[in-house]
Amino acid sequence: MKNIKIILIIIMVMLIGYESGIMIVNSMKTNGSVINKILDNTELVWNGPRDKKVIAITFDDGPHPRYTPKILDLLKKYEVKATFFVLGKHVEFYPEPLKRIKAEGHEIGNHTYSHVDVKKIPSRKIEEEFNKTQKNIYDVIKEKPKIFRPPFGSYNKCLKDLAKKNNIKIILWSSSQDCKDWSNPGVEKIANTVINNVGNGDIVLLHDYVNTTSQTYEALKIILPELKHRGYKFVTVSQLIENRDYENEIKIIGN
């Protein structure tokens, strides 16, 4: 795949010139939208529009009674809407936090049933993990998610085919916004990773459940007020990507 992208860049630079070619490269670095169009990867999303001061805060691996309610309290305090990519097994055990996520206007996405790496399991298992989680979520909130985040950011043709079949988007995250909060690198490091690297349209990766003591909640106490002070608006992932404008990106490059 990397070789294909490199060849495409070289061809484009030769055809339309250096300046426009650099614009394409930058587009690939920030969202890959044009290349995704060409390679039929439009179901993959790394970010929203770069011309609007909006970002999407996302949380993986919940819901869980240990941290999810505390995070929801903080989001409510700062009037922030977020997106939660939930595990089917946690939905079974802890339906109440999921109900609250929904009731307070946040978005819910599928994150597989048991946090599997889709590159390491057969296609039948991928579909099983996806469908079981969709059902578990529907049983609790009477809605099925339209977005999916694969654990570890892994994807393959089988997953992309599944996404197209079910009319869902595969949501990844902006390259500068992986805080690795699951590894407990320190509250300030988590906060600084987000704040110092934030850009318009970013999708921020955080976790509302980890096996050990989490530093995410304390980091959010720094992140949320600071980004609001800088004028950023927090939206759900679906709100973010509904504002994407691929056609204008292609027109800009064409000009």
How would you describe what is shown here?
This protein is of the alpha/beta class and 255 residues long. The protein contains twelve helices and eight strands. Strands 2, 3, 4, 7 and 8 form a five-stranded parallel β-sheet that branches. Helix 9 (187-197) runs parallel beside helix 10 (216-229). It starts with a helix and ends with a helix. Residues 21-38 and 245-255 have low confidence and may be disordered.
Spell out the blueprint of helices and strands.
Layout: H1 2-16, H2 18-30, H3 33-39, E1 44-45, E2 54-60, H4 68-77, E3 83-86, H5 88-93, H6 95-103, E4 107-110, H7 123-141, E5 147-148, H8 157-166, E6 169-171, H9 187-197, E7 203-207, H10 216-229, E8 233-234, H11 237-242, H12 246-254
Parallel strand pairs: 1-6, 2-3, 2-7, 2-8, 3-4, 5-6
Helix pairs in contact: 1-2, 4-10, 9-10
Task: Sum up the structure in keywords.
255 residues, alpha/beta, 5-stranded parallel sheet, 3-stranded parallel sheet, 12 helices, globular, disordered C terminus
Helix content: 40-55%
Alpha-carbon Rg, integer:
18 Å
Which overall shape is indicated by the principal axes computed on the Cα atoms? globular
Helix-strand pattern, N to C? HHHEEHEHHEHEHEHEHEHH
Main beta-sheet annotation: 5 strands, parallel
Counting DSSP H or I runs of 4 or more residues, the number of helices is 12
- The class by helix and strand makeup works out as alpha/beta
Mean of residue pLDDT? Answer: 87
Tell me the fraction of residues in β-strands, as a range. 5-15%
Low-pLDDT runs of 5+ residues are: 21-38, 245-255
The count of DSSP E runs of length 2 or more, i.e. the number of strands, is 8
Query: CA-to-CA gap between the ends?
Result: 27 Å
